[in-house]
Specification:
The protein has helices at about 5-15, 25-40, 50-65, 75-85, 85-95, 110-115, 125-130, 150-160, 175-180, 190-215, and strands spanning about 45, 100-105, 135-140, 165-170, 180-185. The protein has about 220 residues and is an alpha/beta fold.
């Protein structure tokens, strides 16, 4: 990892010394995400409660500009204007580059249908079946590491050839057994774990944005 990207990790460690034991796993998680996006993959994210909100938050940081401008390429701008000169120019000026990410938490019609017709604990796993492809990444968030719906999603992801990044509390839970890398924070109370998850995924999003939109 180059020095420009490591600055983000170093800053995270300075601000949150409690995360020092997680530093190596954060770097490993970044490398998995970097490789996936470089190969035109995408990120799927899931969690429950506050972690469901975190899932949506992460997608928001990746799918639009976070801290850097993400201007469209000249070729894409020209393509938009070719389709429609007026609207295309407006789109070219206002649209931004994106890193494709999907929160599995927000599809109410599908989730409630699966809950009613099959099994609510499999809603995330079913979406992995539909969205996931070899080379994609599942970011599975569970403060306990034992949320069954998240674990089912991780198993489905592994079966489909996705990499799995876990984001958990101190114990890692069962999720750690299925994750290619599990970022464990040194807390056991839910709210304290969640308070540390946010700066970690912000750091990852900053690094990815710098990597793909920093030039």
């Amino acid at each position: 990892m180059n020095k420009e990207l490591m600055v983000y990790v170093e800053t995270l460690m300075k601000r949150y010394p409690i995360l020092k034991n997680s530093e190596e796993d954060i770097c490993r998680a970044y490398r998995i995400l970097d490789a996936s996006y470089a190969a035109r993959g995408k990120l799927l994210v899931c969690g429950n409660g506050g972690s469901a909100a975190d899932s949506e938050h992460i997608v928001g940081e990746l799918m639009k500009g976070f801290c850097l401008p993400r201007n469209l390429s000249l070729a894409l701008r020209q393509s938009l204007e070719k389709v429609d000169p007026a609207y295309g120019r407006e789109l070219a000026d206002k649209l931004q580059g994106a890193l494709p990410a999907i929160a599995l938490t927000g599809h109410n019609a599908l989730s409630t249908a699966y809950l009613n017709d099959v099994d609510g604990l499999l809603c995330y796993a079913q979406q992995v079946m539909g969205y996931g492809n070899t080379g994609d990444v599942l970011l599975a968030i569970s403060t306990s590491g034992n949320s069954k719906n998240v674990i089912y999603a991780a198993i489905a992801a592994k079966a489909k050839g996705l990499k799995v990044v876990g984001l958990t509390g101190k114990n890692g839970g069962a999720l750690a057994d299925y994750a290619d890398v599990c970022i464990r924070v040194e807390e056991i109370e839910t709210y304290k774990i969640q308070e540390l998850h946010l700066p970690i995924y912000h750091c990852l999003c900053l690094m990815l944005e710098k990597r793909f939109f920093g030039q």
